[in-house]
Design brief:
Layout: H1 11-22, H2 29-63, H3 69-86
InterPro entries: ParD, ParD_sf, Ribbon_hlx_hlx
Keywords: Toxin-antitoxin system
Protein name: Antitoxin ParD1/3/4
Length: about 90
């Protein structure tokens, strides 16, 4: 089902859309707008999925154990020493 809607676009947007139609990349201005909305929907859904995955990761990490400041410092120093040794420093 399609719905007719009136939208306002800038002169630049209209010129760009018309150029796409004139080049044969889209059949009509409506098709250009529909594709733009579809891309926006896909982008929005992807960002929502990424946020959900990040929230899950953060929650998982929050439930795990944490290192003390001293333990963290010791691990960092050990990583630095290993890298220096790797490069012969």
């Amino acid at each position: 089902m399609t719905v007719k809607a009136s939208v306002s676009i800038s002169d630049q947007q209209e010129a760009f859309a018309r150029r796409l139609v004139d080049e044969g990349r889209y059949s009509s201005l409506s098709a250009v707008v529909q594709r733009g909305l579809e891309l926006l929907r896909e982008e929005t859904e992807l960002r929502e999925e990424e946020r959900a995955a990040l929230r899950t990761l953060v929650e998982h990490r929050r439930q795990g154990s944490f290192l003390s400041e001293d333990e963290s410092h010791e691990r960092i120093e050990a990583m630095i020493a290993a890298k220096k040794a790797q490069y012969g420093l």
